[in-house]
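Researcher: I'm preparing a figure for a lab meeting and need a structural model of a single chain. I don't have an experimental structure, so a prediction will have to do for now. The sequence is pasted below. Please return the structure as tokens so I can convert it later.
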Amino acid sequence: MSKKSTIFAEIIKKAKMVDGICPHCAEHTLLISVVMDYYRCLNCGGDIEQKVNGKISYLPVDLSVEEIKDGKEI
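Model: Understood. Here is the structure written out token by token.
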């Protein structure tokens, strides 16, 4: 097995799948995670962060980044 295949196989072994309601598309769907506490909706592709505070909540992740220099948005 090549090194690339070995790395991919390790990632797949660590992946978690849960079912839940996606906050992006509001559908009951499968959510898959390859890193801890971050999931992706298999229906719409939205990124979701899992929060555990007495109950499990899935919150949308905002991936947009705004750079601010000297108080002005660039």
